[in-house]
């Protein structure tokens, strides 16, 4: 196959990957409680569970979203009883985020779900050599770099 045709197929696979990833992210799921969460909400809860006392500003910086978007998501998670805000003793302008006992259930359930998915992926890809996987990671990093560069134009 000539290079141009191969690159077109690569791009098609790349776009399909984005579509399936978006579909996954937009599918609500339950993680051990009656609450339904989207992947983005669950990953925000995961950050707060790992870094208790993190601020909205720090979450926004880590995930590349605006403080306003994170604040709205945090408010939704608070309404579901998964998070709580605590005063920051070092600054009156910020609050610290803490996971609630109910949020801890979701946090642990999601961590197990991720481990299970990782194990399934490893099993699914076991036919590929370490070299092939390393090449894939190298290509994927270049694609991510290209996307970042394209977004900064």
From TrEMBL:
Protein name, entry field: MarR family transcriptional regulator
Domain of life: Bacteria
Family matches, as InterPro entries: ArsR-like_HTH, HTH_MarR-typ, MarR/SlyA-like, WH-like_DNA-bd_sf, WH_DNA-bd_sf
Gene Ontology biological process terms from the UniProt entry: response to stress
Family matches, as Pfam families: MarR
Molecular-function annotations in GO: DNA-binding transcription factor activity
Domain HTH marR-type: 3-145
Stretches that traverse the bilayer: none
Matching SUPFAM superfamilies: Winged helix' DNA-binding domain
């Amino acid at each position: 196959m000539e290079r141009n045709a191969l690159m077109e197929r690569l791009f098609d696979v790349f776009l399909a990957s984005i579509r399936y990833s978006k579909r996954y992210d937009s599918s609500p799921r339950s993680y051990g409680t009656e609450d339904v969460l989207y992947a983005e909400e669950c990953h925000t809860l995961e950050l707060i569970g790992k870094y208790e006392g993190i601020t909205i500003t720090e979450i926004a910086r880590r995930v590349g979203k605006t403080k306003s978007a994170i604040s709205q998501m945090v408010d939704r998670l608070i309404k579901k009883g998964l998070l709580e805000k605590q005063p920051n003793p070092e600054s009156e302008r910020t609050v610290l985020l803490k996971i609630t006992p109910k949020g801890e259930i979701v946090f642990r359930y999601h961590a197990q779900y991720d481990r299970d998915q990782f194990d399934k992926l490893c099993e699914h890809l076991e036919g590929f050599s370490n070299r092939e996987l390393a090449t894939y990671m190298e290509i994927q990093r270049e694609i991510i770099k290209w996307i970042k560069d394209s977004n900064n134009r």
